[in-house]
From TrEMBL:
Record organism: Aquimarina algiphila
Gene3D superfamilies recorded: 3.40.50.20, ATP-grasp fold, A domain, ATP-grasp fold, B domain
Superkingdom field: Bacteria
Pathway: Cell wall biogenesis; peptidoglycan biosynthesis
Cofactor, how bound (note): Binds 2 magnesium or manganese ions per subunit.
Any GO molecular function: metal ion binding
GO cellular component, one term: cytoplasm
HAMAP family named among the record's database cross-references: Dala_Dala_lig (MF_00047)
Sites where the protein binds Mg(2+) 1: E287
Enzyme class label: ligase
Name of protein: D-alanine--D-alanine ligase
E.C. designation(s): 6.3.2.4
Length: 331
């Protein structure tokens, strides 16, 4: 019997429209012989199903059910494509865990941890994972520009701690640019991370669970026309994404081993895409995305394609993995 799959998209952050794009790709590519997909928009005001006529039907949040023409629809699984909050920071994961519906992303603790750049880096450092030198600020803290720059140097990056798609990120080249960059970051989050500049080749590494195994996908090299891999570079064509990356066999092994180690240290599952920069010949961890973009032009689908995994297979495997995990926990 076909399974009812709720495709979660939208969210409460600046990444709303990007998430809608990802969700629609999953909706269009999902195997209709196995699944009946439902596009579920998650907004601050309402959660609702959008039918093929763009009509909205409310979701009952008590049990995440949908009633159409007097028939109550219960979902077998949720495919989580919500970038940012509440889909990537653990809130939706915890909700679905409570009501007993499996979902395709990582568990709630891993989502919350990786979404918080500062906490994720702090967790990985004791395992010897190399990262940039960093300085943390909370909104309202006294800002001592000299101490900050003595710690991280110039140039440096100022980032909103809990945001994606490079919202709230600035490259700072002079002391005069520091305070304006901090104000930009505070528009996205009340926590900031300021990091030393790492010079070198930037790569993106997808790690997924596929057929019951942790699999590192072919690596993507990021070559941007801009100062860094910002919103324009990611979504407006201001970068070149080369898969597989132009790395030596030795460097390829280094970053693949490191990405797999990070994935397993954090006890991840589902999709992940992590960014690394080769600094003085060694890969440095930058951040992890647990709900990466899933359009056909997005990095993770490009990597899966190079690995011989088409989108229908990629998405089906994600659903079957979360259903298997639920059955295993019951038994």
């Amino acid at each position: 019997m076909k399974k009812n799959i709720a495709i979660l998209m939208g969210g409460y952050s600046s990444e709303f429209e990007i998430s809608i794009q990802s969700g629609n790709v999953v909706y269009n590519k999902l195997d209709r012989d196995q699944y009946i997909p439902y596009r579920i928009h998650i907004t601050k005001d309402n959660w609702y199903y959008v039918d093929d006529n763009d009509q909205k039907h409310p979701i009952d949040k008590n049990d995440f059910s949908l009633t159409l023409d007097g028939t109550k629809i219960i979902f077998d699984a949720a495919f989580n494509t919500v970038h940012g909050t509440p889909g990537e920071d653990g809130l939706l994961q915890a909700y679905f865990d409570l009501i007993g519906i499996p979902q395709t992303a990582c568990d709630f603790y891993q989502a919350a941890l990786t979404f918080n750049k500062r906490d994720c880096i702090s967790t990985l450092k004791p395992y010897g994972i190399p990262t940039a030198t960093n300085y943390f600020l909370n909104q309202g803290d006294h800002i001592d520009s000299k101490t900050i720059l003595d710690t991280v140097g110039l140039p440096c990056f100022v980032k909103a701690n809990k945001a994606g798609s490079s919202y709230g990120v600035s490259k700072v080249k002079t002391e005069a640019e520091l305070l304006p960059a901090i104000e930009i970051a505070y528009k996205e989050d009340d926590e900031i991370i300021i990091e030393s500049f790492l010079s070198g080749t930037e790569v993106s590494v997808g790690v997924i669970q596929h057929n019951g195994k942790d699999v590192v996908l072919p690596i993507t090299e990021i070559v941007t026309e801009n100062e860094f891999f910002d919103y324009e570079a990611k979504y407006l064509g201001k970068s070149e994404e080369i898969t597989p990356a132009r790395l030596s066999e030795e460097d390829t092994k280094k970053v693949k081993d490191l990405a797999l180690k990070v994935y397993q240290i954090l006890k991840m599952k589902g999709f992940s895409r992590s960014e690394y920069i080769f600094h003085h010949g060694e890969p440095y961890f930058v951040e992890m995305n647990t709900n990466p973009g899933l359009s056909e032009a997005s990095i993770l689908p490009q990597q899966a394609h190079k690995a011989g995994i088409n989108l229908q297979e990629l998405f089906s495997n994600a659903i079957e993995s979360c259903l298997t995990a639920k059955n295993r926990s019951i038994n």
